[in-house]
Amino acid sequence: MAWKIGVTKFKHRQFGEGVLKEVKSASFVIDFGDKGIRTIARTFLNNGGLTEIVEAVEPKSKIKANDSHVKQYDSASVTIGGKNVLESFSRQEHSIFNETYVIIGSELQSTTIQASYDLVVVGDVDAYEISVNGNLTVIGNLQAEKVSWRYISLQTPAIC
Prior knowledge:
Elements: E1 9-12, E2 16-23, E3 27-31, E4 37-41, H1 43-47, E5 50-53, E6 70-73, E7 79-80, E8 83-87, E9 94-97, E10 101-115, E11 119-132, E12 135-139, E13 142-148, E14 151-154, E15 158-159
Parallel strand pairs: 6-9, 8-10, 9-10, 10-11, 11-12, 11-13, 12-14, 13-15
Antiparallel strand pairs: 1-2, 1-5, 2-3, 3-4, 7-8
């Protein structure tokens, strides 16, 4: 994610709100005001002990949340190295990937994207909401209103 020194705010369950001072490989240095400057492990961000405060902004995604068609993806007809491979698509639907998928193409657009396992996208992603229970890897631009994952790897900055 794109954190900005002196701008990005976090909320810690014990220390309250604080402003990012420094990003280290495995931790954040956050100024919690009268509670002091603390070094917090990045794992706290993943397990709910530390949450990023996101200011309300105009939606950046072209895809809106109120579309209701659901498409589920199980085993694909094309696999490489045991991974399901699919060409990217642009649909107003809720896309549910029930297995690990690699999606390749210029842009993947969907109202919501839900992945039960790993999801790799080679190309841009535009969705209202993305939820991945495994690893999310995007080699391209990512635009979404809400994103949750176990681990994320972005090759370009995210716009969330």
